[in-house]
Amino acid sequence: MDRIRKGDEVIVTAGRDKGKRGTVLRRKDAEHLVIEGVNRVKKHERPNPMKGVAGGIVDKDLPIHVSNLALVNPATQKADRVGFKLLEGGRKVRIFKSNGEQVDA
User: Fold this and answer.
1) Which of 14, 79, 81, 105 is within CB 3.0–4.6 Å of 68 for a Cys-Cys bond?
2) How far is the CA of 78 from the CAs of 5, 9, 12, 29, 73, in angstroms?
3) What is the CATH code for 9-96?
4) Domain regions of the chain by residue span
C-alpha cells in the first residue's frame, strides 16, 4: 500500500520547488509522482502537421521522487508523516502520525 496516492494534496519538502503544494496527478513508477504545478519545465516542441501539433514552447510537469514529498494534514495545513493501521474488519487504512486521524474517510 502506497503512502501517497493519486488525488492526495502534497507539499514538496526538498529541492528546487521546496514549499510548493499540489495535487498528485499520476504515478510514473513505484517511486516517482507527477504533481500539479511542481517541477514544471519549458519544453520546445517541433510542429507536426500529421499529428496536429502546432509546436512552440509548452509547460510540462515532470515526475518528482516520493522522498521529496509529504502529505498535507487538512487539520493543521502542514506536512505530516503517514502510518498504517488495521481496522476490526481487517481493512488497512492510512493515518496521520501527529494526531492519528484517518487520511481517507
Assistant:
1) 14
2) 18, 11, 11, 26, 6
3) 2.30.30.30
4) 9-96
